[in-house]
Design brief:
Layout lengths: L1 E2 L2 E2 L15 E6 L1 E5 L3 E5 L1 H13 L7 E4 L9 E9 L4 E8 L1 H8 L5 E11 L6 E12 L22 H81 L8 H6 L2 H6 L17 H19 L3 H15 L1
Parallel strand pairs: 6-10
Antiparallel strand pairs: 1-2, 3-8, 4-5, 6-7, 7-8, 9-10
């Protein structure tokens, strides 16, 4: 920026190669003292606010890079993004160069960048005041201090930072340092809390796993008890069939397995007279009728075969 005949420049030398860099460093943290503009300091907070104001478009326009800080003339490029690097200590700009600027830079007609920046800016339309606002910058060849990567000055020509502004920057920098120290001091306690919380989570997982295992064991035991009871009921039913002469021992396994086809296959002719059916002749045919009807009843009404045979006998007897 050119103020009172003196220029301030970023001492970033643009590429010595044919290609022109699309991103350059424009500012960094540090304390500076200039004979015309006095003492000022760039802190990480200044760079953060500059980036935030750029992204919020507080100026209401796109930021241009010009030639030699002649901002009322043609642009050499347009700033498209700002990025913080080196832990927030450096501010870099992505720039879309014009073809003319690319040629001048590639041929080394221009080699350095000078930022245009102010610590306080009042929006002439809204009246709002913003801190640390970037206006753009210019390409030039006469840097003030070659070993500095960032030199900034107030937007208003002839202005020098007041003691109040310097004090404000110092207080902001101090507050930022104190906040960082608090965060660093709190980290061990937070780490310990995280470890303790992880242990509690692991303990709860182990308890839940154990509880689920116990539930699974209990479910298995209940299923076994249920199966045992069902088997006992089947054995009692078969014993009843044997006592009533409605089944033979050879049918036991098929009955307990619920294999109706095998059960019927192993069945012996039922003595209908002994069962009280009243049938006199052709007992084999009558037995077949009883077994066939009993099988149908057992399947359709889902009852055990012994009960089905009893009902079949009653139905046939009643039909006669």
């Amino acid at each position: 920026m050119r103020l009172n005949g003196t220029s301030f420049f970023s001492s970033i030398e643009l590429s010595d190669q044919a290609g022109v860099p699309a991103e350059i460093q424009i500012l960094k943290t540090g304390k500076f003292n200039h004979p015309s503009y006095g003492y000022f300091e760039i802190t990480p907070l200044v760079l953060q606010e500059m980036k935030r104001n750029f992204e919020s478009r507080v100026r209401g326009i796109d930021l241009a890079v010009d030639y030699f800080h002649e901002s009322d003339k043609e642009a050499s490029g347009w700033i498209t993004a700002l990025n913080l690097k080196e832990g927030g200590k450096e501010l870099w700009a992505s720039i879309k160069w014009t073809p003319t600027a690319e040629k001048k830079l590639a041929q080394r007609e221009l080699r350095y960048f000078s930022p245009d920046f102010t610590f306080k800016w009042n929006d002439p339309e809204s009246g709002k005041t913003f801190s640390n606002v970037l206006f753009g910058g210019g390409l030039t060849n006469r840097p003030f201090l070659k070993d500095m990567q960032a030199i900034v000055a107030n937007e208003k020509k002839g202005d020098q930072m007041t003691e109040e502004q310097i004090k404000e920057l110092e207080n902001k920098n101090l507050k930022l340092s104190e906040d960082m120290k608090k965060l660093e001091d709190a980290m061990p306690a937070k780490d310990a809390a995280i470890v303790d919380l992880q242990k509690q989570i692991d303990d709860l997982k182990a308890q839940l796993q154990a509880a689920l295992g116990q539930v699974e064991v209990e479910m298995q035991e209940k299923d076994k008890m249920k199966q045992d009871m069902q088997m006992k009921e089947k054995e009692n039913s078969f014993t009843k069939l044997l006592s009533e002469g409605k089944a033979v021992v050879a049918q036991r396994d098929a009955f307990l397995k619920g294999d109706m086809d095998e059960f019927i296959k192993l069945a012996q002719p039922v003595n209908l007279k002994a069962a009280g059916s009243g049938a006199g002749n052709d007992e084999t045919d009558s037995d077949s009728k009883v077994m066939k009807l009993a099988e149908e009843l057992a399947k359709s009404e889902k009852i055990d075969l012994g009960t089905a045979i009893s009902r079949a006998l009653k139905q046939i007897k009643g039909g006669n």
